[in-house]
Amino acid sequence: MLNIALFGPPGAGKGTQSDILVEKYNLHYISTGDLLRKEIAGGTQLGHDAKNIIAKGGLVSDEIIVQIIEKTIVENSESHGFLFDGFPRTYVQAYILAGLMIKLHTSLNCLISLELDEEESVNRLMERGKTSGRSDDNEMVIRNRLREYYDKTLPVLQVYKDKGIYAAIDSKNSIDQVNSDVDKVIQNELSKNLLNIVLFGIPGSGRGTQGIMLAKKYGLEYISIGTMLEDEIKKKSKIGLKIKEQRESGLLAPDEIIVQLIEQKLENTKGAKGFIFKGFPRTLVQSYILDGLLQQHGSAISEIIDIEVPTLDAMSRLHGRSKNEYAKAYDKSTDKIINRMHEYEKKTLPVIEKYKTLHNVKKIDGVGTFDEVFERVSNEIEIGFRNL
């Protein structure tokens, strides 16, 4: 979920940028003014309370505002995220929003401030006043609005500067340039919220085929160590020649080579919403390597999914595969299949046990048709995206 607070003095172009961001990132737009008017028009209890306060010339209390915002977020919980326009407006509301986000199991990713000096703001709004017909587009009212904005907003901005999630954008530039600058901030935030899944399952569980299809469906990058090693051998790269030499000596590819390949993948993959790791980590040592690699890229494991299939069923699947065009070299004999099962139990099950203490390992029933299992795993991944 992507949650952004967009700030800016009158005339900074906040409305224009909001429209672009809401459409581009499929966000739900939250403006306290709009929400209050909607509640009043709908005749709700909150709207009735707010209307009475406004009729007496008072300001709507934070208690009413937070209830309206919470109601809106809950009603739109399937949204990809929220764009808060001009909220929080006060130091107190900044902490109210933080508490509300925690309650709803999410958080504010960043506050983007469209910065514009006072004289430029006045000039823009005075120019707008020539055609807008708005009574508040006159210099005295404009300067009062700006004074109120700066008096109330500066303490709020400091809260988010201290949290390290504040970004300032020069809004004197063209609309396209401002949007490009805003987009860079958002892309940086999205890169911190990758959905990284480790897919476990005994040989024959179908995790490879499931992983490929899941990656296509959700815009994730599929990382299969076996596939990456084969690709390097086919390319006859320097790494590929080393791998081939290791295999001819009866040895597995060392972690040093695997780390290089994963590092390259993480560095060169742009635009993916995350990664699905299949066949890695296989050992406890590799589990620490993966944690370190992701941390180095400002990310972490999001979900561990273990596709469970009874051993005899898995062996039967591998035996059947050995007789068709999808057969792997290690499917060719019962001895090789059994050795793979032993290897998995000896080296990989301890990795899953380790992750149980750090993550909520999701057990998925792998028995059934491909589509049935795919639906079960998809449901877990969609929960993972919402939790982000």
Describe what this molecule looks like in 3D.
The model has no long low-confidence stretch (mean pLDDT 87). The protein has 16 helices and 10 strands. It starts with a strand and ends with a helix. It has helices at 14-25, 32-42, 45-55, 62-75, 91-103, 118-132, 139-163, 175-192, 207-218, 225-235, 238-248, 255-268, 284-296, 311-321, 334-358, 370-387, and strands at residues 2-7, 28-31, 81-85, 110-115, 166-170, 195-201, 221-224, 274-278, 303-308, 362-365. It has 2 domains: 2-27 and 79-192, Rossmann fold (3-Layer(aba) Sandwich), CATH 3.40.50.300; 195-387, P-loop containing nucleotide triphosphate hydrolases (Rossmann fold, 3-Layer(aba) Sandwich), CATH 3.40.50. It is an alpha/beta fold and 388 residues long. The protein has a 5-stranded parallel sheet, with helices on both faces. The protein has a 5-stranded parallel sheet with strand order 7-8-6-9-10. Helix content is 60%, strand content 13%. Helix 5 (91-103) crosses helix 7 and helix 10 crosses helix 11.
Number of helices: 16
N to C succession of SSEs: EHEHHHEHEHHEHEHEHHHEHEHHEH
Which architecture of the largest domain would the CATH scheme give at its second level? Answer: 3-Layer(aba) Sandwich
CATH homologous superfamily (4th level) name of the largest domain: P-loop containing nucleotide triphosphate hydrolases
* CATH overall fold name of the largest domain: Rossmann fold
